[in-house]
Amino acid sequence: MKDAFGLPQSLLVLGGTSEIALATARRLIARRTRTVWLAGRPSPALEEAAGQLRGLGAEVHTVAFDALDPTSHEAVLGKIFAEGDIDMVLLAFGLLGDQARDEREPEAAVRVAQTNYTGAVSAGLVCARALQSQGHGSLVVMSSVAGERARRANFIYGSSKAGLDAFAQGLGDALHGTGVHVMVVRPGFVRTRMTAGLPESPLATTPEAVATAVELGLRRRSETVWVPGALRVVMSALRHLPRGVFRRLPI
Question: Across the chain, what does the average pLDDT equal?
Answer without folding.
Answer: 93
